[in-house]
Design brief:
Pfam families: 4HBT (PF03061). The chain contains two helices and eight strands. The protein is of the alpha+beta class and 142 residues long. It is globular and about 45 Å long.
């Protein structure tokens, strides 16, 4: 399946339709998106931390949800009303303070009305995931 939106088109659409994701300015970037998978980076910021110096759960959940939205849009095009219907996260290990968080999302099934995918969250250069996410998105009628 070929991508229906380039990274530049995704970024322009998201900045226009989902500006709150970029309100901190340049913290999140799309590194790749090909209609089947995407890789996103959230640059480290002290606001990501919870007490104890670990990356917070809400930070990880938001990045995973956003990565699923990006991979879905890359597959179906600019459908702003595609929405999360389910998101399940398993926290596996501590995300390191000072390290960027990477989200690697891939679509497992893309139907006419639902899309199911998974996201692996990584901390810095470590190959060991800090969280694993499964998510389902509802796709509106055309």
């Amino acid at each position: 399946m070929a991508a229906k939106m380039t990274i530049a088109e995704l970024e322009a659409f998201l900045h226009a339709e989902f500006p709150q994701a970029f309100r901190t300015g340049g913290d999140i970037s799309i590194e790749s998106a090909d209609g089947r998978s995407c890789r996103m980076r959230q640059r480290f910021n002290e606001r990501m931390l919870r007490p104890g110096g670990t990356v917070s759960g809400p930070t990880l959940m938001a990045l995973a949800d956003f990565a699923m939205y990006v991979v879905l849009l890359s597959a179906i095009g600019p459908v702003g009303l595609a929405v999360t219907t389910n998101l399940n996260i398993n926290f596996l290990r501590k995300g390191a303070a000072g390290a960027d968080v990477l989200a690697e999302a891939r679509l497992l099934k893309l139907g006419k009305r639902l899309a199911v995918g998974e996201v692996t969250l990584l901390s810095g250069e470590s190959p060991d995931p800090i969280a694993h996410v499964t998510a389902t998105y509802s796709i509106p009628n055309a």
